[in-house]
Write a structure and sequence with these properties.
Blueprint lengths: L1 H19 L3 E11 L4 E3 L2 E3 L4 E11 L5 E9 L3
Antiparallel strand pairs: 1-4, 2-3, 4-5
């Protein structure tokens, strides 16, 4: 009797979880940068270039098995 009740409960939870799944679309953007100063030591001076970049991402999930994701990033140092 307990096993049947437990199986029924698990089946109901699985059906409700599938019914709650729906399409979802996400978008994200980020910026980053590296701005460094001059360093010196042992008679050597280093001045790294300042760099900046960013990334844009769009993701769409149609259902539990189908979806796609597009990402574009830019970095001057590449």
């Amino acid at each position: 009797m307990r096993i049947t009740a437990l199986l029924s409960l698990c089946l109901c939870a699985a059906v409700l979880a599938c019914a709650a799944a729906h399409a979802e679309t996400d978008a994200a953007a980020s910026l980053y940068g590296a701005f460094t100063g001059t360093t010196n030591g042992n008679g050597t001076v280093q001045s790294p270039a300042n760099t900046a970049g960013g990334m844009i991402e769009v993701r769409h999930i149609s259902n539990l098995l189908v979806g796609y994701e597009e990402t574009y990033s830019y970095n001057r140092a590449n």
